[in-house]
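A quick aside before the break. I want you to see a complete sequence-to-structure record at least once, exactly as it would be stored in a machine-readable document. Don't worry about memorizing anything.
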Amino acid sequence: MSVLLAIVACTTVQLPGGGKLAFLADGPHAEIAVKATPDGWTAEVKGDATNCVCEVRGERPDGLYFGNGWYVKKPGRFSVDCNGHRNGTRFDGFDRTNGSSLVMASKLPINELYVEPEEGCFGIRTVEPTVFTVVAGGKGAFECAIRFRDKYLTEKAAAGVKAKAGRFCVDAWNGKYGQHADFIEEAATKYGLKNDVLFYSHNWQRWGYDYKLPDVWPPNPRFGTKADMYRCLTTAGKHGWGFGLHLNTSDFYDDSEVFTFDNVARNSNGKPQKAWYNAFIKAQSYRMLPDYAPVSMRSVMKEMNDDGFKPDTMFVDVIGSFPAHPYWDKDGKRHPSSAAVKHLCEVFDVIRDEQTKASGRQAYTSSEAAADFMVGHLDGGDCQFMVLGKKAGEYRWMRIAEAEKIVKVPWFDAVWHSRFSLHGAGYSIRFEGGRGEDCHGIDSDDYFSVELMTGHALMTDAYSRDVKDVSSQTVRDFNTLRVMRQVVRSYWLAQHIVREIALDDIASVEFAGGNPERQIIVWKGGMRICVNRGREDWRIDGVVLPQYGFLARSGKTGAEAMIARFGGQVAECSSYRDGKKLVRYVNPRSFGTAKLLPYTPKADVSFSAGGKLSVSLAFEPYTPQVSHASRIPYTLSLWLVRPKNTENNNTLPDDLLGTFDSVLNIQPETFDFRLPPKANGEYDVLVSVKPAGLAQETNFDETKRLKLLGTPSFFKRYHLGRVNVGKKTFTPFVQEDMSLWPRLFAPEEPVDFGWIKTREAFRLITESGRPDEKTLLPDAGQ
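That is the input. The structure line, written in tokens, reads:
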């Protein structure tokens, strides 16, 4: 928490079991009106308050709950602002050491959630007057959150939530319009994906992605004709899909036809606020003035609609995740954060209202990393469920000083699920957080279990691995074979579960046996979902759940879905009734989930005389499938790379130590390399492998590189360890997911699902008096 300069209003109340709850506000005319409620307290802060605080004094929390759903056991020092990538909720939960729990909430967005163990306090803060609500209880933070939802929330769902809720999102970042239209047609007619899917095309804008914004219309001809894009819309409409485009009315480029610094937000010093920097085309954008954003969006939508393109959904980048901070205009006038909220929310109202009129259907909106202060205006968006850890790393945008345990939980959805429709658990590379796509990407059990844990609509990002292609305006084909398998598999496994709870509310969240890694989520309509986030198997309701396994069963309809252990194999299946039809799906994972070389690179690195690095490199084969060295020569490249933690710094220059041809040796082979000039500090040592004889590519070019069994960094380069040049030390990389690796390979024997023993992955529809209808899961084309 920031140091308080002038406390002029302070009210404290005694908490049950000891400790004090304090409400504070700065400002010569600040006032705080505290009222006791049957569940706790409310505190209305009025006047000129600029630093409004709700905090507990005299203790440190035993547990912390916040954002999309992070639970931290015994948190250390921590501070996080209001941001959909980090803390997109206005309510936060705390377990106290005496066994009781609290939920603290704010009417306005929270500008800081903090834990200060040494000072013995924790709480929330806003930068202008708000209403704080505190709910206390002895049955856990989730029980407090649900009472807060049922008794104190006044926000209603926006008009498009019902139309969006439960829709499977296909998030396409590459490909051409015609490929998208063909994909929608095939998915609907061949695999039965109708009525509850939406398709967003992200890379289509007139001048290219994130360039010359907000000048986006007409569509970029590099991705096909305007007729092709219109065919996407008509094809989607024919099959009940939603189809929409990626818009951005926050990042404002100075080469746009409508750019003027008059419509750029300023900092307190009067300087324009810089926004996204597109490093690949060296284009700097500025933060659009929130007052102007709805005007800009209305102009964009009118241009589309007047040209005959009338979608019923749109995805708006950035705004959902945008911190609601005060801003200044060109005249130096300060606008409070509540004004930013008002104008940014208006953007979504403009889109929904304009498109509902234009399309003749109820339109709905989505945004990136959507935060809950948009409820009532925004219909939902993608959930960017980032990694929270004690160390920095790739796409780890927040850290906590210390924690006994960090577990993902359904915190956001315990309150907002029926009023705000989130989909997915984030873009794959963000969700992975440097842990690798095979065990933690958008197709992984880790990702699926979070979607089912939260009850979110399912999502695929169509194998977009990074921002390089779209930001550099590279046209990459839509890999229909891979995406089709990805989408159909997800849909058959769990879409019927998601659809049933799309507009339901969570009734309770239980940590089985007090273990937060074993969660039982019960929904008001009768759905019960058990999720194992821990490493040890969990037997529950007659099913064995491995790490990241889940079991979803409806007490109302009998529908079920699971990723579970069948004998020694982790596999997946589902079933439900559609009228008189019984629909069943089984997937023994006969294709495996990854096409890779089953070798794990390992190295020891030392410093030798003359400024050289000596790398002893070996490749450990995976057993029992492989027990010998590869006899095929490959081209190996070793890299020295600055540690990365954002999506922007994947453009930093990386140092190629050297390239050589070799088999994948089991026994270590030593190579000496000269350190780059002026090398200093820490570097990650990475290795990449490609077929022998290919020309050397840049650090960004991964198209010819081969997948290994290990943990990759950007662009299919695998971690060996970290060197510190100054200290001349090397720390080998520790593989944390070896227990998950067996899932990446096809089973040696058929899997017994009880009603069938099979190696095939398929959906079977049976109905009395009719022939069975069997459809194989599409091949991934690997």
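Two observations worth writing down. The first helix runs from residue 141 to 152. The first strand starts at residue 7 and ends at 14. We'll return to this after the break.
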